[in-house]
Amino acid sequence: MPYFSLVLVTGDSRNGQRSRNGVAAAPASPEPAGPAAELLVVGLGPGPGHWLTPEASEALAGVDHVVGYAPYVDRVPQRPGLTRHASGNTVELERARFALDLASRGERVAVVSGGDAGVFGMATAVFEAAEEPGYEDVPVRVLPGVSAVQAVAARAGAPVGGDFAVMSLSDRLKPWSVVERRGRAVAGADLTLAVYNPASRSRTEQIVTAREVLLEHRESDTVVVVGRDVGREGESLTVTTLGELDPAAVDMRCLLIVGASGTRVSAAGRVWTPRWVRS
Length: 279
Description:
The chain is an alpha/beta fold. Helices cover about 25% and strands about 20% of the residues. The strands form three sheets. It has a seven-stranded mixed sheet with strand order 1-2-5-4-6-3-7, with helices on both faces. Strands 9-10-13-11-12 form a five-stranded mixed sheet, with helices on both faces.
């Protein structure tokens, strides 16, 4: 005797997740199936659409899943056939594993990151997770983006026109003693220094200590650029000195560029570092 059955599924049924407006809930690992697809790791740039590279735009237009930290996922426009998987700020490895799981079963996936994905972004988390058993056949390709240090430097002029270093003051993934030791080395080497993650609501003393460490090796009139929300609404750029820098005015939305001894400010207020260093 013939019969008929009907199953009603609410939201997005892929991977057993519910979805609202195309944004998937916290991911659950999908079941393996089919040949692996290439996993893309895409840098979205600091914010404005015109800083998203054509390569990145093309890649995002061709995937079925976007995985990332919620504010970055929100920057990828929803379209038919796209599922956006948003998660929190401290689950990078879980995010990477989920994306690798999707790619391992043949799904077209992009992991998105602000700025350049290879500069304090998701690229390293993906490669770390990819070393785990089961992901050997998943190819990973990183697409570069405009980094925050490039954006702030361009707004200021050319402060990283000479040798420079990039550091994060976050001690979530490394001991503060390591951060401080590296800061002393950079300061002693007279390199321009770009500082990511200088402070947050729970990390207010690190920038205070970092300034003190730098002042052990740099003059108080060393040029400092503080870029806040560069490329986004409310953008501001402040040019000050290491002696006048107010740590209380620095937060997670800032990126700092601390000049070398040769860094200067032009008559028009542009900050630049010579390519040459006097012997």
